[in-house]
């Protein structure tokens, strides 16, 4: 296959679950109507509450999760691959959850699950975040073979750890649903995304939260699709919206042939 049409969806989720789901559905339907074959929701698309424990209260097993079933139904109806940003999955630790990215195929089947490995911690005196207080970290690096190539899964803070995307065979695509803070995003978001694309000669799909949320939190947005040369193909700056692009997969193969950096690596990356 020589092309793939991808949509990254940006939201400004709040503390109203039903409203958030309605907004997510509208964006997914728009993506499908514009020919997207793969659509990516942002991290926490379902809820951005004042109290992080509100998300933990929604955690459920992956085989019996009403929010996952809802996404599966839409994927089946629309006939597209959907990356369900993140959903809260049950953890063995009381009072905690896994923050998990779930890939659904066009038949509505769960194709892959990735539990966020790196848990965000940030404190400036004015802003403070500690995901480890309510989350259990994952243990595995996850790739999934799509019809167009291999997709490596990551979530938000994972972006800062390049070794996650260097383990094993090089991915063709990298997915990064996120809720980057405005402070860190303004400084580093685009820089890090473009670096991950260039390092791996891979397309990067970044679907983000982008705006003001309950409790005063502000996210950076700038959802984007980046090509293997580091060029931004499509972008949403702030607020709800969609960035969509048709990828030239033949051009990626040409770039990897002309600049075979992936075959020139001398240092093995391990756990």
UniProtKB/TrEMBL annotation:
Q: Name one Pfam family in it.
A: CN_hydrolase
Gene Ontology molecular function, alphabetical: hydrolase activity, acting on carbon-nitrogen (but not peptide) bonds, in linear amides
Task: Tell me the superkingdom of the source.
Answer: Bacteria
Q: Give UniProt keywords alphabetically.
A: Hydrolase
Q: Where is the CN hydrolase domain?
A: 4-249
User: What protein name applies here?
Assistant: Carbon-nitrogen hydrolase family protein
Which organism encodes this protein?
A: Aeromonas caviae
């Amino acid at each position: 296959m020589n092309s793939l049409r991808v949509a990254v969806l940006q939201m400004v989720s709040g503390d109203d679950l039903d409203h958030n789901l309605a907004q997510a559905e509208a964006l997914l339907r728009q993506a499908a109507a514009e020919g997207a074959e793969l659509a990516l929701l942002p991290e926490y698309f379902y809820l951005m509450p004042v109290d992080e424990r509100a998300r933990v209260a929604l955690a459920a097993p992956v085989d019996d999760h009403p929010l996952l079933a809802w996404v599966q139904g839409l994927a089946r109806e629309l006939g597209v691959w959907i990356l369900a940003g993140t959903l809260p999955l049950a953890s063995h630790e009381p009072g905690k959850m896994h923050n998990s990215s779930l890939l659904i195929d066009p038949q509505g089947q769960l194709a892959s699950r990735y539990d966020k490995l790196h848990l965000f911690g940030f404190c400036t005196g004015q802003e403070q975040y500690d995901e480890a207080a309510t989350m259990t970290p994952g243990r595995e690096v996850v790739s999934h073979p799509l019809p167009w190539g291999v997709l490596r899964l990551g979530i938000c803070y994972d972006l800062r750890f390049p070794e996650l995307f260097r383990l094993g065979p090089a991915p063709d695509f990298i997915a990064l649903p996120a809720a980057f803070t405005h402070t860190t995003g303004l400084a580093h978001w685009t820089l890090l995304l473009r670096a991950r694309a260039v390092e791996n000669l891979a397309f990067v799909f970044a679907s983000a939260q982008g705006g003001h949320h309950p409790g005063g939190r502000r996210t950076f947005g700038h959802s984007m699709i980046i090509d293997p040369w580091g060029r931004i193909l499509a972008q949403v700056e702030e607020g709800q919206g969609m960035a969509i692009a048709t990828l030239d997969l033949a051009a990626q193969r040409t770039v990897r042939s002309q600049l075979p950096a992936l075959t020139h690596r001398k240092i093995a990356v391990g756990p």
